Amino acid sequence: MDDQELEVLLQDLESDRVERKVSGADRDKICEAICAFANDLPNHRRPGVLFIGVSDNGNCAHLSITDELLVRLAGMRSDGNITPFPMMTVQKKILHGCELAVIVVEPADAPPVRYRGRICVRVGPRRDIATQQEERRLTEKRRAKDLPFDVQPVASATLDDLDLDLVRREYLPSMLPTDILAQNQRSIEHQLASVRFVTVEPQPRPTVLGLLTVGKDPRQLLPGAYIQFLRLDGTALTDPIRDQKDIDGPLPDLLRTLDEVFHAHIAVALDITAQPTDIRRPDYPIVALQQLARNAVMHRTYEGTYAPVRITWLNDRIEIQNPGGPFGQVTRQNFGHPGITDYRNPHLAEAMKTMGYVQRFGIGIALAQRELRKNGNPPLEFDVQDAHVLAMVKRRP
Q: What residues does 215 pair with on adjacent strands?
């Protein structure tokens, strides 16, 4: 949006595409506004704008727009509280002589968007939690041709391919606040559509996300949806095999099983010389391996390939390779740089955050590097190609 259009919106006190805040102090209200604009319930199909530094009546609040404030506002996009990620920009602007922070939020392609599990909407002057009817309207607004692959329907799948007990037992209680869950009187088809596990038209059809997250046998319909684990007795790929297994199943089972495999293979050495008390040091920190493996599951491509995520454990290193090269704003040149992140599977990332396998978006590599450094392991190494990304973790000396 150019400055002229922003100036018009700033002066239009009637527009439901605009919110004004005197300061950036009320984080919840700002996030709710971002969520509501992303949902675009009135179906404007145009951005909503949040002006920070101006009162409701349009008077300038003379707020100092610092870099710290802009960074904090921009961080609301990917801190995991608004899911899936909103498309938004944050800029410092001077409009009509007033210094402002301006957040421009694009309508989501696959609503509903939630803030801490609640669907915020705005119609006219009202911003509130969506009713069941409003939520249904948002679900029906999805533009199929624009959707990421992870929420595309799988033509050969049916509702029988989803584990509905897993949805009710684990996923919905993790995603929705207790009071919202208690009020839920919708059909299971509507509940599944709301979390993007099925499409709504012309009939309920499981999506890639639904099958990956709560499918009874995801690999049957998405052949690459598994992890191939190989433990070798040596330092070369041709050395004898000590252990191998294919790890598959719905996302919670797959990641739990992988954690068990990691724990079973990590060796812990006893250091009796470095400190007055004995210290047990693993050859690899479990948190680093979890972060890298979950990143591989989250960021890999599931489209047009039967290749699994491959984890090869050798005597001197672990190699974690996922199909699919850099995506979006991430390139071979900036891969792994702090603050540079993008999501090939944004709704799968949301599901992993919902179930507790991601604490905060965009910090997986940095967290893995930190844990390796604390444990005494060499730094991570990456081989980034157009068709795959390989992370190499070297054993602690």
A: 162
Amino acid in the structure at residue 298: M
Q: How far apart are CA 282 and CA 377, in angstroms?
A: 10
Question: Sorting pLDDT into bands at 50, 70 and 90, what band is 361?
Answer: confident
Whether pLDDT at 280 is above 80: no
Residue labelled with tokens 């591989």: 296
Nearest to 370 by CA among 288, 295, 284, 282: 288
Distances from the Cα of 290 to the Cα of 72, 244, 259, 296, 344, angstroms: 28, 18, 7, 10, 20
Mean pLDDT of 6-33: 92
Write the pLDDT tens digit of every residue in 139-197. 887 765 568 899 999 999 999 999 999 999 989 888 877 777 777 677 888 889 889 99
Instruction: Output the pLDDT for position 270.
Output: 60
Which residue from 17, 176, 21 is spatially nearest to 104, judged by alpha carbons?
A: 17
Q: Give pLDDT, residue 269.
A: 67
Tell me if the bond preceding 202 is cis, omega within 30° of 0: yes
Rounded average pLDDT over 338-358: 89
SS (H, E, C) the chain: CCHHHHHHHHHCCCCCCEEEECCCCCHHHHHHHHHHHHHCCCCCCCCEEEEECECCCCCECCCCCCHHHHHHHHHCCCCCCEECCCCEEEEEEEECCEEEEEEEECCCCCCCCEECCEEEEEECCEEEECCHHHHHHHHHCCCHHHCCHHHCECCCCCHHHECHHHHHHHHHHHHCCHHHHHCCCCCHHHHHHHCCCEECCCCCEEEHHHHHHHECCHHHHCCCCCEEEEEECCCCCCCCEEEEEEECCCHHHHHHHHHHHHHHHCCEEEECCCCCCCEEEECCCHHHHHHHHHHHHHHCCCCCCCCCEEEEECCCEEEEEEECCCCCCCCCCCCCCCCCCCCCCHHHHHHHHHCCCCCCCCCHHHHHHHHHHHHCCCCCEEEECCCEEEEEEECCC
184-193, long-range: CB < 8 A, 24+ apart = 185/132, 186/132, 188/164, 189/159, 190/136, 190/139, 191/167, 192/159, 192/162, 192/167, 193/139
